[in-house]
Design a protein that fits this description.
Number of helices: 11
Bound molecules: zinc ion
Strand order of the largest sheet: 8-9-10
Structural class: alpha+beta
Order of helices and strands: EEEHHHEHHEEEEEHHEHEEEHHH
Length: 285
Amino acid sequence: MMQLPGGLIVNGERRRDFQFRELTGECELMLCEQPTPAQDDVFCHAQRVTHVLCQNLASIGGQSATRETVNALSVGDRQFLMRQLAVHIDDGVVWLTAVCGQCTEKFDVSFRHSELPVKPAGEHYPSKDIEISLGKVTVSVPTGNDQLAVVEIANQQQAMWRLITRLVRRKGRRQQLQPEQLTTEDIEQIEITAEAMSPEIATELSASCPNCQAENRLPVTPYSCFDRSADDLLNEIHTIALYYHWSEQDILALPSARRQHYIQLIDRSRGMADRHQMIHGGLHG
Ligand SMILES: [Zn+2]
């Protein structure tokens, strides 16, 4: 069974278990639907991830997947879950066309989402005490909550300051740390500590060019679920509605595996009808 590379701390215990719900057409359709521009201001990427994970997770760390729980997951765990959701929906071979950075020749690369490497969380996850110029501080890995807190800060430098004040707590002090108090070395040390603890998934794929053998790094998004087209799903709904006269709502509520089964049955009876017509037409033609 797959486990979170980081995990949640539940009652002092690190829990890495999670379970997806049975996939339905409704879930699939929700992934295809782009948030409308009007929603965009309030529905940023991190919120969309939270929403999708809440809808598709049956449990996480032995609890139900509420918005609070999903936002409290480390960024690495959230990316991992989005990729696992892609695997849950369809772990077929994915083809990419790459342009070689060396010889500019085009070539095709195939992979499966389930084969992409995962770096588990490091020691002390999710927080570690370190000594910086100000004394002892506790550094935590960034979570969904941290992403959401900085999402509206357009200035990158300011967003980083805000993130650091969220990730670093001074021992025994209530007030937040002021970023101006930190030296360059402090910031570097904080970043290294957070990075070493954070779980990570591969966002790049290495492929050698068949023409010049140069190694190429190709980006692979954790969010391929969001790039799916609704075309196949809508075709299937159309076919099932045509044969069984069920409503769109009822078909969408079917577990995806069962919907596929009906499609196979329809294809088979269509195939038989075609053969019948061929033989029939052949005899009388
Ligand atoms: Zn090449």
